[in-house]
Amino acid sequence: MTAEMTEEAVHTVERYLFRLGVAMGNLPASERDENVREIRAHILDRIKAEGGPLAQAVDALLQRLGTPEQLAASFERELSLARASRSSSPMLWLRTTARWALSGIEGFIAFWVAVFGYSFGTGFLLAGLLKPLFPNFFGLFINEHGFSLNRQHALGEHELLGVYFVPVAMCVGSFLFVATTFVLKWLVSRFAIAKQHLRQKPAAAN
Amino acid sequence: MKTEDKAERWEAQFRKGCLELAILATLLDGRLYGLEILRKLEGNPRMAIGEGTVYPILARLKSEGLLESQWVEAEAGHPRKYYRLTRSGRTRIREMAAFWDEFSGSLDSLLARLQP
User: Which of A20, A24, A184, A194 could be joined to A106 by an S-S link, Cβ 3.0–4.6 Å?
Assistant: First the structure.
């Protein structure tokens, strides 16, 4: 009953799975392996069901799955937003929202929230860290144009907070990071439609 | 010709949107593995989907916590990955079904004018 696969067919399947694994390089190893394992089970089940040990049958079957690169891309697309929405990594958020930005206005907004939120956060943290090293250069300075985190040598400039700038800047910086991530998570959950967009982009491109 | 193209694209988009609901619905009676889900969907000609589409969607539904999976050794000689609805998956499908009912109801009443 069980159809013996020809050597050529085995090769074709193994080559397909190998390319699939390589193409999913951006996913964590455990997810990648699990996806490859699942597709392997699918192929073996299909071959068994259709009794097609012939090379052509295997080719046709693999064609229905798409190229390994296409399949890998749709795994990555489906998983990237879901993964980011659980994560607090700014780098992951910047990458994900940059991709999301191409698919519509919500993504565009999310991307700028990420860029502004994380850069201001970084600015405060850096100024707070550098204040003890360059006390005269970093701090909270007020002048006629507004406030700045370093000395501008502008007219009417004076410093606020003094040495207390360090703990305040650290708190504000950390708060900006947490708040940005919070807003991004909210945007992802609120605009589920945007997720849909992301998923459908390649279909529209075809 | 052009209208036909547009209609086809609309149909593809629409089907994709409903796919998530359809996949969750196939699991209402218990656990299934990917190919069984595909076969259930293939049973309805309008539901047929690309084989490469279903696995990535399953992976996402799982990472969103709507499904859970388990590898089970089979007599086939290789293990299969079975999916099952989680509690939040069941909640989600109930919400989606309620939305679908309301939505299709309103659409039906709008389309009623088409009847001769």
Answer: A194
Q: What residues 13-52 of chain A have any CB closer than 8 A to a CB of chain B?
A: 31, 34-35, 37-42, 44-46, 48
Give the chain A residue whose CA is nearest to the CA of B19: A196
ipTM of the complex: 0.83
Domain definitions of chain B by residue range = 2-114
| Topology annotation, domain B2-114 | Arc Repressor Mutant, subunit A (1.10.10)
User: Rounded to a whole number, what is the distance in Å from the CA of A153 to chain B's nearest CA?
Assistant: 52
pTM of the complete model = 0.63
**Structural domain boundaries enclosing A128:** 87-206
Half-sphere exposure of A95 (CA within 13 A, CB side): 13
